[in-house]
């Protein structure tokens, strides 16, 4: 009877190991994406600060591929604000995803602990 218990525990541990490795990779990817979005957000914020001090009649150009398009100061400010807001929303989503992934691994670990304790009690 000890052999089926050992096989069941081995299976549970191997599933947990696979889940932990997968989760760690997803958390690392989320961290990288958060770092990149933070840089984008900071760049947009700094650019917005520089554009804000310019006179309203200053000619501003937006880089599009290999060319530059004349844009109004208001349009550029709106684009920069949208870029900041979008990055902030994505960062919040990624943080929530990380919390969910970490919680799911913790629950799997707790389930295995309970299984071990119930096996020892019998």
TrEMBL record:
GO CC terms, sorted: cytoplasm; prefoldin complex
Coiled coil regions in record: 70-111
InterPro entries linked to this entry: PFD_beta-like, Prefoldin
GO molecular function terms attached to this record: protein folding chaperone; unfolded protein binding
CDD domains, alphabetized: Prefoldin_1 (cd23164)
Annotated keywords: Chaperone, Coiled coil
Superkingdom of the organism of origin: Eukaryota
Keyword Coiled coil listed: yes
Gene3D superfamilies: 1.10.287.370
KW Transmembrane (keyword) present: no
Subunit architecture: Heterohexamer of two PFD-alpha type and four PFD-beta type subunits.
PANTHER family noted in UniProt: PREFOLDIN SUBUNIT 1 (PTHR20903:SF0), PREFOLDIN SUBUNIT 1-RELATED (PTHR20903)
Protein role: Binds specifically to cytosolic chaperonin (c-CPN) and transfers target proteins to it. Binds to nascent polypeptide chain and promotes folding in an environment in which there are many competing pathways for nonnative proteins.
Family note: Belongs to the prefoldin subunit beta family.
Protein name: Prefoldin subunit 1
Species in which this protein is naturally found: Sander lucioperca (Pike-perch)
Gene field: pfdn1
């Amino acid at each position: 009877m000890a052999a089926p218990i050992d096989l069941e525990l081995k299976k549970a541990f191997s599933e947990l190991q696979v889940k932990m490795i997968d989760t760690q990779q997803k958390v690392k990817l989320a961290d990288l994406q958060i770092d990149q979005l933070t840089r984008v957000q900071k760049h947009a914020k700094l650019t917005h600060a520089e554009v804000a001090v310019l006179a309203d009649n200053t000619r501003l150009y937006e880089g599009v591929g290999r060319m530059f398009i004349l844009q109004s100061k208001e349009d550029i400010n709106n684009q920069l604000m949208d870029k900041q807001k979008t990055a902030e929303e994505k960062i919040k989503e990624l943080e929530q995803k990380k919390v969910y992934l970490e919680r799911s691994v913790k629950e799997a670990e707790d389930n295995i602990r309970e299984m071990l304790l119930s096996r020892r009690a019998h």
